Amino acid sequence: MAESSGGLSHPHFLQVAREVLEGKRELDDLTYREMLCSDCPFYHPGEEEDLECGCYLLLRELLRRGGLDLRRALEVLGHLHE
Description:
This protein has about 80 residues and is mostly helical. The chain contains four helices and no strands. About 50% of the residues lie in helices and about 0% in strands.
């Protein structure tokens, strides 16, 4: 089971989310995949990238429709430094 405290780490998500918020990257399909999939142990770049898991599809739609806010996600994870 995943840890529920500061031991939980999602370095790719945190880095890409910050870059999006800073205007350094656009939220396009490649950015969604890198941000949402790169920390997953089941994701292997270049292999079967046309397959998408349910979590990816759900999170991508929440981001696209405004149901998930990157700034708030970083705040909740304790990684928003302004």
